[in-house]
Amino acid sequence: MKVIRTQVGILGAGPAGLLLGQLLHRQGIDTVVVERQSRQHVETRIRAGVLEQGTADLLQRVGAGDRMLREGLRHHGIELRFLGQGHRIDFQELAGRAVTVYAQHEVIRDLIAARAAAGAPLFFDAGNTRITGLEDEPRIHFTNAGAPCEIACDYIAGCDGFHGISRTSIPPDALTIHEKVYPFGWLGILANARPASHELIYTHHKRGFALLSMRSPVVSRLYLQCAPDEDLEQWPDARIWEELQARFATRDGFRLEEGSITQKGVTAMRSFVAEPMRYHRLFLAGDAAHIVPPTGAKGLNLAAADVWLLSQAFADAYRTGGQDQLDRYSARALRRVWRVQQFSWWMTSLLHQGGGDAFDGRRQLAELDQVVNSRAAATLLAQNYTGLPFDEF
Length: 393
Ligand SMILES: Cc1cc2nc3c(=O)[nH]c(=O)nc-3n(C[C@H](O)[C@H](O)[C@H](O)COP(=O)(O)OP(=O)(O)OC[C@H]3O[C@@H](n4cnc5c(N)ncnc54)[C@H](O)[C@@H]3O)c2cc1C
What we know:
Helix content: 25-40%
Oligomer: single chain
Number of helices: 11
CATH class of the domain at 2-73 and 99-178 and 270-354: Alpha Beta
Shape: globular
Distance between the termini: 42 Å
Strand content: 25-35%
Bound molecules: flavin-adenine dinucleotide
Radius of gyration: 21 Å
Largest sheet: 8 strands, mixed
Structural class: alpha/beta
CATH topology of the domain at 2-73 and 99-178 and 270-354: FAD/NAD(P)-binding domain
């Protein structure tokens, strides 16, 4: 049995685990990352794409931001579209900040490259992962090419996403779970088509919500509200384009540019929080502890905010020998988590059709009217969308 000794064992090579590894490396703290999937899998997994200013700054700070600076698309606003008309929310003017559109799998590639350059260990294709000794002597057990391995560490960072083993290794009576499942999902496509707008368009429509996003000046990422268990077989490409054109239509004849669809998928939507985000020597971060519906583009950003706090707490513990910051980690992280949960729920309930209630439809339109005509309401949206400052929590 191979036993590797490190300071912090990290489960999961998603944004949370990899960013935490880099932040700790820069503080001189040793880590080992253990990932269930292959490198190829994690580097091509299509997911989020909007980075808050704070997340983009962190990537630069850990030496993984050069390509993002070159290739990322800097956005200074979004459009809210309803009743066939667009209304721009100007982030720069309202919040003095911007977001960067840069795909999550590109972030992962850059973080893996930075970790490799630092010579820090990362095990892909780990089998049968288990964690033990959470109260006093934490261990990560896994198989590496069939051979049993063990990571002996001071702490474990559970960064293994919603379906990982970290959260479920905590005794159920030590956690409180809050969950809200929405009666709809998103059908998302990637298409070789020039985006019809250089900024994101969030559309409220009686046929359902739609979002125009992009991955590059020639690749569109588009979403349609659908049933959470929508059957993709019922959605040939022609039907998808027809539905998208209907939902994005404006009174002045807006048309999406169409192109070949290279990827299709359905994502169900939920809000989920497990608290506290700590069990003795196990600290949860990112999707392992919470899920937001994707409407506010917050999942990846919230993972980054968690690990920023956690890295400071670990650094303080190793520097001072004290546990104060580690003891405060969960409460500090959860304060932001709940603010972001509120914002993501608000944007979701503002824009989606929730089951045909006419009162609700009129209420949404009144609220949209308020957001685009009240500077105070628009500022709140701009501040939350571009991200609450990491140091505020
Ligand atoms: C289809 C999809 C689309 C999304 N779109 C958006 C979006 O548009 N905007 C947005 O902000 N967010 C979006 N999200 C959410 C965002 O991608 C996540 O919030 C973000 O990836 C969280 O990062 P994480 O590191 O916490 O978790 P993850 O990215 O899930 O990473 C966890 C890692 O742990 C690994 N792992 C799991 N179990 C184990 C184990 N037992 N042992 C070792 N490793 C393990 C996983 O393979 C994975 O690599 C989307 C998510 C999905 C699934």
